[in-house]
UniProtKB/TrEMBL annotation, chain A:
Gene3D superfamilies: MetI-like. The keyword Transport applies. One of its GO terms (cellular component) is plasma membrane. This is sn-glycerol-3-phosphate transport system permease protein UgpE. GO terms for biological process: transmembrane transport. Belongs to the binding-protein-dependent transport system permease family. It comes from Actibacterium mucosum KCTC 23349. Its main location: membrane. The gene is ugpE. Coiled coil: none annotated. Pfam families: BPD_transp_1 (PF00528). It is a multi-pass membrane protein. Keywords: Cell inner membrane, Cell membrane, Membrane, Transmembrane, Transmembrane helix, Transport.
TrEMBL record, chain B:
InterPro entries: MetI-like, MetI-like_sf, UgpAE/MalFG_permease. It is found in: Cell inner membrane; Cell membrane. GO terms for biological process: transmembrane transport. Residues 74-282 form the ABC transmembrane type-1 domain. The complex is composed of two ATP-binding proteins (UgpC), two transmembrane proteins (UgpA and UgpE) and a solute-binding protein (UgpB). This is sn-glycerol-3-phosphate transport system permease protein UgpA. PROSITE patterns: ABC_TM1. One of its GO terms (cellular component) is plasma membrane. It comes from Actibacterium mucosum KCTC 23349. CDD domains: TM_PBP2. Signal peptide: none annotated. The chain crosses the membrane at residues 12-31, 69-93, 105-129, 141-165, 204-226, 266-286. Keywords: Cell inner membrane, Cell membrane, Membrane, Transmembrane, Transmembrane helix, Transport.
Amino acid sequence: MAEISQTIATPAAPPRRRFRWGRVFDHAVLILGSAFMLMPVLLALTTMSFSDVQIERQGIIFGLSDQMGANFTKAMTEKSGFTEAITGTRMLMNSFILGIGFALGKIVISMMAAYAIVYFRLRFATFAFWIIFTTLLLPLEVRILPSYEVVQGMGLTNTYTGLIVPLIASATGTFFFRQFFRSVPEEMIEAARIDGAGPVKFFIDILVPLSRTMIAAIFIIMFVFGWNQYLWPTLITTEEGLFTLVRGIKQIIQVFEGATIPEYGKGLALAVIAMIPPVAIVVFFQNWFVKGLVESEK
Amino acid sequence: MKRAGFSNPWLPVALLLPQLSIIAIFFYWPAGWAIHSSFFLQDPFGFGSSFVGLDNYTDLFGAVEYRKVAGFTVIFTLLVTFLSLAIALLLAVKADKVIRGARSYRTLLMWVYAIAPPVAGFLGIMFFQQGNGPITQFFGFFGWEFMLGVNYTDTATAMVIVSVWKQIPVNFIFFLSGLQSIPKSVQEAAVIDNNSGTSRFWDITFPLLAPTAFFLLIINITYALFDTFGVVDTLVKGEPGNNPLTLVYKVYVDGFRGNDLGGSSAQSVILMVLVLILTVFQFRLIERRIHYT
């Protein structure tokens, strides 16, 4: 294909030289763009290897020193916060609970709902679909105060349930699985029925295995989404023992304000720890992630 | 619905129950409550409330401060949307063109997707810090004395830059996948007809990307309105003071700091209406106008 276009383009095109310059320009733009995306985090990493005094004096530093390990250890093990009740390790654990709990809960609940909507003759299927679909329209942020009051009224503040379950109340996953189930050939279910498989068996033995890639893709997106939640955890968790890393960021900054020499190294280390798991998952499972993201929005 | 469905009467109900009950408790109830309490004036000490009709709304639209926040939100949204879409489109077009290193570029340009907005805001603080932040020093080089958290425009600038940085990856991913789905034959036909790369892009490629671009436009507006909360909150360091705020941030400040349930709910309802308009707009335009693929 590429050959055809080149042979056609050549007669009118100037000599190859200019063509090459264009390519250099393309790469220059891409390198510049990549640097713009990469630099802030890279510099945060290098700065983290310095001591607080040096960071206080010089700000962001490009270079390497020997404090990286010390800052990491401090971030992970030293107790911090107003009540001195939480370490980085604990926050990391809470972040994982939120990320994984949210992703799994969302997948299980939305797969069940999507299965019911797509595969059953149900009189109120359309109605149920619209009830669920409407939730796509209003993000949690716009109904934040009443949501908080509801959760508080149920006594769920400062619990993992109160942290995770209200976040699941939207239809993104259901919508995604509905689209996917509809693309599964109808012969599948006919064949399953001839073989005498009931709805439960069909779901567990045929549909779930078929959806493996989709589940993986949606898991990545939901995990990152849950991990990165900020406003909701800020409201729901006031006990420091339940803070996630992303929630803890605010504490880090507020501690900065009062101190003579803020603990920059520790703060940066916590920020880096907060980035590593979601970034790693997105980079390593890039293809699934991109597929999930693009498909889920169709 | 599939034609060959199961006809078990109770199983689907059981399957739908968890989702429906979560939505009822954590979505419809709060949303309804927001609408309800927007018509009431709450006693700040918790002694009941009184019906005030549309007073909360008229108070809001009459308040200079609210209009200022709304005005800032509009400008902020336009800037973030335009800049992140434009930069991402440029990068996606280039990434679609090159062959060598294509995968590495893709990775480098999309990984920031995974960074949480407040973490991005925290990095912003380090970079825009007064005194020794590298970007502050860079601006100082041109005689711009940048003061994050003190000067209104400066804080707003930092918010826009950080928010754009955070949003480029999503736009990039969608633009790139949009570009890759344009059939090669179309592009080759375009090469025969028109040799200028620029006009080929605007005449052929861009219209074909229009559905993606339009979808992204809505996504970006929603992002700038709601998801930038973490960026705003970290960059103003939790001290609204004289700093630029977005509408969502004001809902939070009035509701949780000011204990103004009615006013905050009225703001929530205004935002709900805004999102509904956006969504309706999205569906109508997608159905009516843009139908290439």
